[in-house]
Design a protein that fits this description.
This protein has 383 residues and is of the alpha+beta class. The protein contains 8 helices and 20 strands. The protein has 3 domains: 84 residues, Beta Barrel (Elongation Factor Tu (Ef-tu), domain 3); 144 residues, Threonyl-tRNA Synthetase, Chain A, domain 2 (2-Layer Sandwich), CATH 3.30.980.10; 103 residues, Roll (Diaminopimelate Epimerase, Chain A, domain 1), CATH 3.10.310. The longest helix has 31 residues. The chain is elongated, with a radius of gyration of 33 Å. The relative contact order is 0.08.
Length: 383
């Protein structure tokens, strides 16, 4: 079996090994077994290490039947000595994320008694699924406690627990494991069975940043960032806030109030525009009042205004069609107090290259821009 150097020294990023086996996976990739390796295989929610073996690029690493399999992009001669090099920046970031997850999950378990039933280090964030509900405020309290553990810079301990000794130690584990257990312990935060790689001290995590709490199944999914990832996230947020600051010409601490004022003014303007559009529609619809089939086009109507206008136009008519917009595809609302307009709508959309639907008395959608008189004649011929 392969000697696993990443358990002996998680900071080892270069090593020498002998190629035990190299077999083709496909025309461009080979599976390599070594007598020893510092490459961590994917597992337990943690990414595999990447890097190089001699001139070959290591594309993936998996454990299969107790062996560590390296997927590489060139043939390596069995029996040959090879120099391995880990992508240290990737490994260190993964260890920051994984160590931070231990602290957060351990504190959730200690505070609420919930188990971490799902863990994944993603390209955007670390996600943890807990089998109980946590509010955002409670998660922020855990975030604060977790960062205090980081600032205390306590050691992250690793040790093997045999089957007899494990009966005397309380620890977290997602499943029952036969044989010896590898335990990761962070004083004041967590004791957990884990096969991953971790930092030596909590201070190396830097910080934990909570970025999301959402309901998931019967519990919650919590998303965090650790270390450099957290710093990059905060820089992006700061950059966006600086843009807002410049746009609204206000101090950063006042931006929210200024934006609220702008949104309120926008809402008021939208209301006034809707009122003006409806008034314009009423003027345009005067010539339709004595007709059983009424058709009005009003460019200024938007959104629900088209449907409200159709409802008004249909009063006293057999059927009413209101169209709006200035684009090639215009919005429509078809309304009637006397008939089910859905069958007419289906044919209307077929003839005028559109789509729409709704209830028996009112349908909405879009059709190709068409002259009002053409639409009126078509309706008269088809109802």
């Amino acid at each position: 079996m392969t000697r696993r150097l990443y358990y002996e020294d998680e900071y080892l990023c270069q090593f020498d090994a002998t190629v035990r086996e190299c077999r083709m996976k496909n025309d461009e990739r080979w599976i390599v077994l070594l007598d020893q390796t510092a490459f961590f295989p994917e597992g337990g929610g943690q990414w595999p290490d990447l890097g190089t073996l001699g001139e070959a690029n290591v594309l993936d690493v998996h454990e299969r039947n107790g062996e560590v399999e390296h997927l590489v992009d060139m043939y390596l001669t069995p029996g040959k000595q090879i120099h391995g090099c880990i992508d240290w920046e990737r490994r260190f970031s993964v260890m920051q994320q994984h160590s931070g997850e231990h602290i957060f999950s351990g504190l959730v378990h200690a505070t609420f008694g919930y188990d971490n039933v799902g863990f994944h280090i993603g390209s955007e964030a670390v996600t943890m699924d807990f089998n109980g509900e946590i509010t955002e405020e409670e998660a922020r309290n855990i975030e604060t406690k977790a960062n205090k553990v980081i600032f205390s810079n306590v050691p992250i301990e690793h040790f093997i627990l045999d089957k007899e000794t494990r009966k005397t130690l309380e620890y977290r584990s997602k499943k029952e494991i036969e044989g010896d257990l590898r335990i990761v312990r962070i004083p004041g935060a967590d004791t957990c069975a884990c096969c991953g790689t971790h930092l030596h001290r909590t201070g190396e995590i830097g910080q934990i940043r909570l970025i999301g709490v959402q309901k998931y199944k019967t519990g919650v999914r919590v998303s965090i960032l650790c270390g450099l990832r957290a710093l990059m996230y905060e820089r992006r947020i700061q950059d966006e806030m600086e843009k807002v600051h410049r746009l609204v010409s206000s101090r950063l601490e006042n931006c929210a109030a200024v934006i609220e004022q702008v949104l309120e003014e926008r809402k008021n303007l939208q209301y006034k525009n809707e009122q003006m559009a409806m008034r314009l529609f009423e003027l345009q619809s005067r010539s339709e009042q004595d007709k059983p089939v009424r058709v009005v086009h009003c460019d200024e109507l938007t959104g629900d205004g088209t449907a409200r206008a159709a409802g008004k136009l249909a009063d006293g008519a057999r059927i009413a069609l209101v169209t709006s917009g200035e684009e090639e595809n215009i919005s429509f609302a078809l309304c009637s107090d006397e008939m089910d307009v859905r069958p007419i709508t289906r044919v209307l959309c077929q003839v005028f290259s559109g789509k729409g639907g709704g209830k028996p008395g009112m349908t909405q959608g879009k059709i190709r821009r068409t002259d009002r008189d053409v639409l009126r004649k078509w309706l008269c011929d088809n109802i």
